[in-house]
Write a structure and sequence with these properties.
Elements lengths: L2 H11 L16 E5 L2 E4 L3 E5 L2 H4 L8 H11 L13 H13 L6 E5 L2 H18 L7 E5 L8 H5 L19 E3 L9 H15 L3 E6 L3 E2 L5 E2 L3 H13 L2 E5 L23 E4 L11 E5 L1 H8 L16 H15 L2 H13 L9 E5 L2 E5 L6 H10 L2 E2 L6 E4 L7 H17 L1
Parallel strand pairs: 3-15, 5-6, 5-7, 7-10, 10-11
Antiparallel strand pairs: 1-2, 2-3, 4-12, 8-9, 11-12, 13-14, 14-16
Function: Catalyzes the transfer of the alpha-amino group from S-adenosyl-L-methionine (SAM) to 7-keto-8-aminopelargonic acid (KAPA) to form 7,8-diaminopelargonic acid (DAPA). It is the only aminotransferase known to utilize SAM as an amino donor.
Protein name: Adenosylmethionine-8-amino-7-oxononanoate aminotransferase
Main location: cytoplasm
Length: 419
């Protein structure tokens, strides 16, 4: 098929994320990728400023990750996980237990980030049932959050300013507190209000779910690490299951391997995904403590009620373990520090606010961005970006060079001016 026929078929038949089928946004054909760059047909090589939605942390075609997939293909590509197991899944679980905060030693391998959050919420609900508190069916969460697109995940996304407001009459109703203050904000005042809200609803709450340190698709909002200690204290005081959704923040993005480490806080349940496989295959995991696992097992079903078809896929597990091997070298930390330094240039852009945390840079404008114009302007400067609402952001691969980061900053400036 020609380039034109490929794009025509795509336009007429393929839905893309958050787009209309009757009036679709333009798409661009990608013909290759290597390192920090993707090759866009008609444009050429450009820096991927969003690392394939924050997942390709080591860039593309990394030799170690490529080799892991090829090697696993020669042994076993997939087998059902019901009643069977295999070395890649066991090895990955062992590595995750070693790397995550101490005590998270039970692992559920999911097939996407949204599914891992669904499983986490099920764990909390079943734990409460198993400990004799079946009436606890609601969740406490701060406004400004985003946890995925499946139904229970949508129910704990921001009900007013989030992407899922159209479902407000259909979704379960949960309890929303004020979002944490921004970096340098008044944590004490916010904490007092959040504690009071938790106390008022405690007898109906099963869990507390948060994105630690950085709320992502709900507004790219960083907040102080001491807020994580507040969440832990509230959960302990009221018997809530504390869930950290680290799907976007995990594996170094905010400056520590996991955002939980910034406050030395261990949640009861942790979700990881996105960068888990280095962007190669869809895989996520929900980790929990032994206490939570025992509570789930004591519920009326006696088992955790979930089991994806592609649970523990050997290819995904093999490349995830290779990805964790790369992270274990510690090289990611230098990359994140270098990116953080380079992203300080974003403060030169005329904007409502500029926020930089770890390998994350956010420029907030005073108007909703014209996605098409902003994207075209960034591409003209050699960068692929995906702005949303009033935000232009970057979460690039850790392998980006100083030149790459300078290019990203120039692309963001151009997008801000054009959009």
């Amino acid at each position: 098929m020609t380039r034109e026929s490929l794009l025509a078929f795509d336009r007429d038949h393929l839905w893309h994320p958050y787009t209309s089928m009757t009036d679709p946004a333009p798409t661009r054909l990608v013909t290759g990728a290597s390192g920090s760059r993707i090759t866009v047909d008609g444009v050429g090589e450009v820096v991927d400023g969003v690392a394939s939605w924050w997942s390709a942390i080591h860039g593309y075609r990394h030799p170690a990750l490529d080799a892991a997939v090829r090697g696993q293909l020669e042994q076993l590509s997939h087998v059902m996980f019901g009643g069977l197991t295999h070395e890649p899944a066991i090895g990955l679980a062992r590595r995750l237990i070693e790397l995550t905060p101490a005590g998270l030693d039970r692992v559920f391998l999911a097939d996407s980030g949204s599914v891992s959050v669904e499983v986490a919420m099920k764990m909390a609900l079943q734990y409460q049932r198993g400990t004799g508190r079946a009436e606890r069916t609601r969740f406490l969460t701060p406004r400004g959050g985003y946890h995925g697109d499946t139904f229970h995940c949508m129910s704990v996304c921001d009900p007013e300013g989030g992407m899922h407001t159209m479902w407000s009459g259909v979704l379960p109703q949960h309890v929303f507190g004020e979002r944490p203050p921004g970096l340098g904000g008044d944590v004490d005042a916010w904490a007092a209000e959040f504690r009071a809200l938790a106390a008022r609803h405690a007898d109906r709450l099963a869990g507390l779910i948060v994105e630690p340190l950085l709320q992502n698709a709900g507004g790219m909002h960083p907040y102080p690490a001491e807020c994580l200690q507040v969440f832990r204290e509230i959960a302990d005081e009221h018997g809530l299951v504390l869930i950290f959704d680290e799907i976007a923040t995990g594996f170094g993005r905010t400056g520590t391997l996991f955002a939980a480490e910034a406050a030395n806080v261990t949640p009861d349940v942790m979700c990881v995904g996105k960068a888990l496989t280095g962007g190669y295959l869809s895989l996520a995991a929900t980790l929990c403590t032994a206490e939570i696992a025992h509570g789930v097992s004591a519920s009326d079903s006696g088992v955790l009620m979930h089991g994806p078809t592609f649970m523990g896929n050997p290819l995904a597990c093999a490349v995830a373990s290779a990805n964790l091997d790369l992270l274990a070298t510690g090289a990611w930390a230098d990359g994140v520090r270098r990116i953080n330094t380079g992203l300080q240039a974003l403060h030169q852009i005329d904007a409502v606010d500029v926020r930089v945390l770890g390998a994350v840079g956010v420029v907030q404008l005073d108007h909703e961005i014209d996605l098409v114009k902003a994207t075209e302007a960034a591409l003209a400067h050699g960068v692929w970006l995906r702005p949303f609402r009033d935000l232009i952001y970057t979460m690039p691969p850790y392998v980006c060079t100083d030149e790459d980061i300078a290019t990203i900053c120039a692309g963001i400036a151009a997008a801000a001016e054009a959009g």
